[in-house]
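Worked example 4.2. Below are the chains of a multi-component assembly; read each line carefully before continuing.
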Amino acid sequence: MLETGIPKIDEFLGGGIPDGKSLVYYIQPGVEGEVFGLQTVYTSLKSAKTVVYVASSTCPDNIKGQFAQFGWDIDIFKDRFFLVDAYNSLIRAPSKEKYVVSNPENIEDLSKIIIDAMKELPPSTIVFGSLSTILDLCGEKETIEAIRNWNKYAILHDHTMIYNFTVWPYSQETLDSIKKELFNAVIAVGGIADRVIFGQYYWILRSDWIKESRKSMLKSDWTKESRKSMLFRVSRPGGITLFIPKILITGAFFAGKSTFLHALSTQSVSVDRIGTTIAIERCHVEYKGFSADLFGTSGQERFTPIIKLLSGESMGVFLILDSSNPQDFIHAKEILQITKSYGLPYIVIANKQDLQEALTPEEIRKHLGLGKDIPVIPAVAKDKIGIFEAFEILIDKITGGI
Amino acid sequence: MNDYTFGIKVLDNAVDGLTKGKNIMLIGPSMSGKEIILYNMMYYGATTNENGIIMVTTREPATHILDWFKEHNLNLPMSRIGIIDCITKTLGSNDVENDNIKITNSPVDLTGIGVKISQFLDEFYMKKNIRKNQLHINSLSTLLMYSNIQTVFRFLHVFTGRIKGAGALGIFVLESGMHDDKDINTLKQLFDGIIEIKSENDRNFIRVIGLSQKPTPWFHYEIEGSNIKMGE
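Applying the procedure described above to all two chains together yields the following structure tokens:
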């Protein structure tokens, strides 16, 4: 089984990509999708696998430079990392690589080198940096036939095949083959576009090895046309992190919202803070392959309209309670009602658990009349206890169901 | 006021300005000053019209282009300038990216070029709130040296569409006399208009086709330093 190393994808694929299977990243033009293949290469190398990277749109040195940009040192894996140079011959430049395609515009030449590598090397991860360039240089029909052949060899020799494919306007027949037939799994990588592309996301379009229950869930998502997508950002260094644009942190007066926000934060901005938050605080969190922007609201009741406004645009909510102050639970209940009315996933943080008079999470659950499906997480925000667990649980609730 | 202008008065008057979302081919022979004309459009667009300028260069490194402006004492407003350099890496240079320069792998890497164009458009349109942007590609001829006509057509099909969608202006340079007429005609389908240049008896002429009811007359011009001097 090969892990892609891309947050959430391996989980959705039931742990990763089984040996002998093929996966294509189906990338909308203009979206930064080639990093998916690169991140899979690096993850594969780190897990002691042999990797072959087919470089068809640039020279091998540039590919190595791309890894360096992401902070991924591949030199330490040089005994297990092979580049198929399908570029330098195009510009009549010499190559230092073991596998060199003499005429990258001829699919037979390219195919021969790839199959030689597949026969010679132990079960490997084989990544095509740009399948589109191969289609462009060698022809659509010819390349599709070659892919069939490579994927067959992969089954015979237990290689795992990964393809980066940019969805230029090829013939419908070609696009249908790539999307529906040639590969065991298809992950679409797209852009949120209005006049320009201002956000990037991926979703799993198809996978033929995940458990039936999971598959039916995915299928039902597509048939209802309610594709749930993961937003992502590409960081240098770092690679792909999943991005949650807005999480709301709210709760009653002096419940410890700012302390919670600052404890989670990698960067934060306080607005009009004089002892307590008067308007809004904002922070950014990077944690375990996720990044999120968090917005903290004032706990004073007169700022309830701000909570309503932010709730309408948020993807999830932390409701912070002072576990030692049940009188404020009434206001907390009102905030919960606002949150519920927007159908947002939320969790309750039972803060200040270090105080003697603090109620337990179960007691708080009873006070608020919460069902078992709503997590109530014990925490001491000032000591950073329970906060990252809470972050993970909320992220799971936001990203769940895909 | 027009959304976009060429910055060459007689041409702007002749076509009565340019509306949003136009894609224009700039075609002419070598040594006819196409690049100076393009740089003038870039400068005029960024300074007078306060547009964002995205330049894809396949012929000269980005640093050389910026040097040209400096040498001619033309101060570009750098917050509005983005250059996508497709040549530096193929020359083995170690130039690095900065706020104004993004470097792609090679002219073959149309996917990478497309990503960088999208990034600059996003940055100008969403982050800097620059609503009028110009995309200049210099030149399609180099892209056609590395990729076949269908590949370049597919790339342009996507990005001329994005230009329309974003209400931007696209200027795409092509060398005349280097390509089959059939290829040029294939590409022409994607454009709303053509700026055509010809050289006769050591004199250069320019006209615009497709952006007014009939083609403009041929205007004689000369390049003097960084200036385009229009003749009679």
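Take a moment to check your reading of the output against the notes. Residues 209 and 215 of chain B are 4 Å apart (CA to CA). Residues 9-230 of chain B form a domain with the Rossmann fold fold (CATH 3.40.50.300).
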